[in-house]
């Protein structure tokens, strides 16, 4: 039986890429995981819901908690709640123990501006796989999540380093190489 070279090339490419790409199931899970984690956190303690500002992001089962909560105890409760959600394979609790930033404050508006600017600059670069990188900015700290090669991570980090308003960069990437 003779195999078409095109078929062999396509099969080889799909095998190589399958190690680098997320499954459709993981992509769907990542859309619902933040709301599940947020709901679990809110159920755990009324103080977490009313006295904290918690951002939840997820990429490929890796979950980030960022924001502010007034006590170390509440930070721990948020982490426990997040870990109890099915599908969370790794958790980064980057909550700061401090009074939450104001909802209408300039800090949150600045964070949104930084995130938008970074997404645009990464997209314009052309060598950065923006579909595999999630950018979250909280209080001037930029968190980078995604499934990328070390070179792609370096390119993305370089863009962030050159952007004004960024206070710190936290890389939470999963590397494909």
Describe the model:
- The protein is α/β, with parallel strands linked by helices and 177 residues long.
- The chain has two domains: 24-97, Histidine-containing Protein, Chain: A (2-Layer Sandwich), CATH 3.30.1340; 106-175, Alpha-Beta Plaits.
- It has six helices and six strands, in the order αααββαβαββαβ.
- The strands form two sheets. The chain has a three-stranded mixed beta sheet with strand order 1-2-3. The chain has a three-stranded mixed beta sheet with strand order 4-5-6.
- Mean pLDDT is 87; it is low at 6-20.
| Global shape | globular
What percent strand? Answer: 25-35%
Spatial order of the strands in the main sheet? 1-2-3
Count up the helices.
6
Helix content estimate: 40-55%
CATH topology of the largest domain: Histidine-containing Protein, Chain: A
What Rg do the Cα atoms give?
A: 19 Å
Proper CATH architecture of the largest domain: 2-Layer Sandwich
List the quaternary state of the chains: single chain
CATH class of the largest domain: Alpha Beta
Uncertain regions: pLDDT < 50 for 5+ in a row? 6-20
Pfam family, one: BON
Keywords: Signal
Organism: Pseudomonas mangiferae
Signal peptide: 1-21
